[in-house]
Amino acid sequence: QVQLQQSGAELVKPGSSVKISCKASGYTFTSYDMHWIKQQPGNGLEWIGWIYPGNGNTKYNQKFNGKATLTADKSSSTAYMQLSSLTSEDSAVYFCALGAGIAYWGQGTLVTVSS
Amino acid sequence: DIQMTQSPSLLSASVGDRVTINCKASQNINKYLNWYQQKLGEAPKLLIYNTNNLQTGIPSRFSGSGSGTDYTLTISSLQPEDFGTYFCFQHNSWPLTFGSGTKLEIK
Question: Nearest chain B Cα to A107, which residue?
Answer without folding.
Answer: B43
